[in-house]
Amino acid sequence: MEVDVNHVINHLHRTPTVLRSMLQGLPPEWITNNEGGQTWSPFDVVGHLIHGERTDWIPRAKIILESGENREFDPFDRYAQFEESKGKKIDELLDLFEIFRLDSIHSLKMMKLLPEDLKKKGKHPEFGRVTLGELLAAWVAHDLDHIVQISRTMSRQYRDEVGPWRVYLSVMR
Amino acid sequence: MEVDVNHVINHLHRTPTVLRSMLQGLPPEWITNNEGGQTWSPFDVVGHLIHGERTDWIPRAKIILESGENREFDPFDRYAQFEESKGKKIDELLDLFEIFRLDSIHSLKMMKLLPEDLKKKGKHPEFGRVTLGELLAAWVAHDLDHIVQISRTMSRQYRDEVGPWRVYLSVMR
User: Fold this and answer.
1) pLDDT exceeds cutoff 90 at B21
2) Is A172 helix (H, G, I), strand (E, B) or coil?
3) Residue B152 burial (CB < 10 Å; 0-12/13-18/19+)?
4) What distance in Å separates the CA atoms of residue A27 and residue B130, rounded to the nearest whole number?
5) Which of A80, A88, A110, B72 could tie A51 with a disulfide, CB 3.0–4.6 Å?
6) Do A158 and B18 make contact, defined as CB atoms within 8 angstroms?
């Protein structure tokens, strides 16, 4: 489906509300339990999304618009949340994510992007040449990917408790 | 994690709001596109959840409490939504799901279940003996499973558009 900036904003605007309706007021173990090993809890995921708002999506869009392929993006730290979220509660993270996301959307609107702008190119430290349209599509898909992860992680807390229904629940496999 | 009726109600109460925040007001193609072939769109999934409220979860809990293993559950029709949702809009489905879910939660509260009630047994047409606790855990996990499915389905609409970011988006695989 073709990337449309208004659709992108429509999706991006939803995620803080989706996360709040999924997580705010849950008993703590549902927030901090993960899928085992080095996997992430819902708490870790929200911290990761906050770090993305601050250092990834809008900063990279600005680099594309201002410098094109001449300036490579800064690498994204996928583990920053383990330090940054320390001592915080989930409610604070949900508030911070909403604030940073609204600020990102404001910045995106101020760019007044036209369809042809989505073809503009930037330089990713790992992938090489990427376009602004790919960056925006990845931002939306990344939100949805982490909603998948949070839902799956919570569902798996009942892996044993669902008994034989396990066979009909694809997340348990 | 042990099944606690109050936690179950806490989760069940969230799902209509989560679905509304994900779907209401999206452009129609995001609602009706599926993952290809015979897979379900977000529209199909919401219809399926409505059918479950009407014919599956609470009716089966009542059978367990009233008849135990003496009365086998009615089989669940996993394709009913294709007929029942015909001609409806997503907003109507979201409203119906919320109404039926609130009614289900009311019925569940009226059962005034004690921890020992969760060990009560029923007879599933396919699995044989199941417990009320397994039924309630499966209800919560089933909601989360379908939130996973809706998020994944929407994310995959941008499968091509995300370009090289595909490798970092686990839902695309």
Assistant:
1) yes
2) helix
3) buried
4) 26
5) A80
6) no
Q: What are the two backbone dihedrals, phi and then psi, of residue A21, each rounded to the nearest 5 degrees?
A: -70, -25
The DSSP H or E segment spanning A123 is strand A121-124
Closest chain B CA to residue A160:
B1
Please report the pLDDT score of residue A124 as a whole number.
97
Q: CA-CA distance, B40 to A170, in Å (whole number)?
A: 14
The confidence score (pLDDT) of residue B82 equals: 87
The pLDDT of residue A87 is 92
**Bridge partners for B72 per DSSP:** B123
Which of A11, A131, A163 faces B130 most closely, judged by CB atoms? A163
Mean pLDDT of B134-140: 98
H-assigned helices in chain A: 5-23, 28-32, 42-55, 57-67, 81-84, 90-110, 132-155
ipTM (interface pTM): 0.96
CA distances to A123, A152, B168 from B22, in Å? 32, 16, 22
What pLDDT, in 10s, does the model give residues B60-97? 999 999 999 999 999 888 888 888 999 999 999 999 99
Res A173: pLDDT:
83
User: Which parts of chain A have pLDDT scores under 70?
Assistant: none
Instruction: Report the alpha-carbon distance of residue B159 to residue B9 in Å, rounded.
Output: 35
Q: Find the mean pLDDT for residues B153-157.
A: 97
CA distance B171 to B35: 11
Chosen from A33, A101, A161, A171 to mutate, greatest number of chain B CBs within 10 A:
A161
pLDDT at A56: 95
> Do the Cβ atoms of B141 and A3 come within 8 Å?
no
**Which residue of A131, A141, A164 is in closest CB contact with B158?**
A141
Of chain A, the percentage scoring pLDDT greater than 90 comes to 91
Question: What Rg do the C-alpha atoms of chain A give, in angstroms?
Answer: 18
B7 and A18 within 8 Å at the Cβ level: the answer is: no
Cβ-based burial of B127 (10 A; exposed 0-12, middle 13-18, buried ≥19): middle
Structure-block tokens of residue A38: 């080095």
Instruction: Give B108→chain A minimum CA distance, Å.
Output: 18
